[in-house]
């Protein structure tokens, strides 16, 4: 089955076409312009893989955790394509997709902005804690074999591991994290906190008005 895999939960725009365990085409681009670049990248990847939208059998999309603005781009795109094509859309935790590419017990950390991080811990390939959000200095974890964390945040973590790297989500990892045997559940974004944008406060009524 041909699967389109998408993730915009991090500063990496991730997309790819996967056939079983074979990745036919993929991209991972560091950008904050997810909205402008996602659909052109999808079209380019389909062309590179030699397939059409109509050939797709399913879509997998990362549901975070991630900042509101970027996360909703991938999820809205996946939902719209799924409805247009009449194919199932499976949402997965972005950190699960990252962990699928790591060996041993792992801690996956991504940038949550506001001087915070999103994290989840894995043992034997299964998530055992998180996802959650906290300040880097407040993050604690039992011993793990590997930590995946952006380089700009690595020095802020009070945790040691034999291996510290940065593994972005990949199309193969997204597909590995999806359960195609189960009916797709409604997509639920993992924001884990209130969005940055808030409704403006109502201005006080002028005493001159009746």
TrEMBL record:
SUPFAM superfamilies: Actin-like ATPase domain. The keyword Transferase applies. Coiled coil: none annotated. Keywords: Transferase. GO terms for cellular component: cytosol. Residues 29-143 form the Gcp-like domain. This is tRNA (Adenosine(37)-N6)-threonylcarbamoyltransferase complex dimerization subunit type 1 TsaB. It comes from Corynebacterium wankanglinii. The gene is tsaB.
């Amino acid at each position: 089955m041909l699967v389109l895999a998408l993730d915009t939960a991090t500063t990496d725009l991730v997309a790819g076409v996967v056939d079983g365990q074979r990745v036919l085409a993929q991209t991972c681009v560091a950008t904050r312009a997810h909205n402008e670049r996602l659909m052109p990248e999808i079209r380019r990847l389909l062309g590179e893989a030699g397939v059409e939208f109509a050939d797709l059998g399913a879509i997998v999309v990362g549901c975070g955790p991630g900042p509101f603005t970027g996360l909703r781009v991938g999820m809205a795109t996946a939902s719209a394509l799924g409805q247009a094509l009449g194919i199932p859309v499976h949402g997965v935790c972005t950190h699960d997709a990252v962990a699928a590419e790591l060996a041993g017990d792992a801690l996956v950390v991504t940038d949550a902005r506001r001087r915070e991080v999103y994290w989840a811990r894995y043992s034997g390939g299964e998530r055992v804690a998180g996802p959650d959000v906290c300040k880097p200095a407040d993050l604690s974890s039992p011993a793990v074999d590997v930590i995946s964390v952006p380089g700009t945040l690595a020095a802020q973590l009070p945790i040691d591991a034999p291996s510290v790297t940065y593994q972005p989500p990949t199309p193969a990892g997204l597909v590995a994290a999806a359960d195609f045997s189960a009916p797709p559940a409604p997509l639920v974004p993992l924001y884990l906190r209130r969005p940055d944008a808030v409704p403006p406060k109502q201005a006080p009524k002028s005493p001159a008005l009746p």
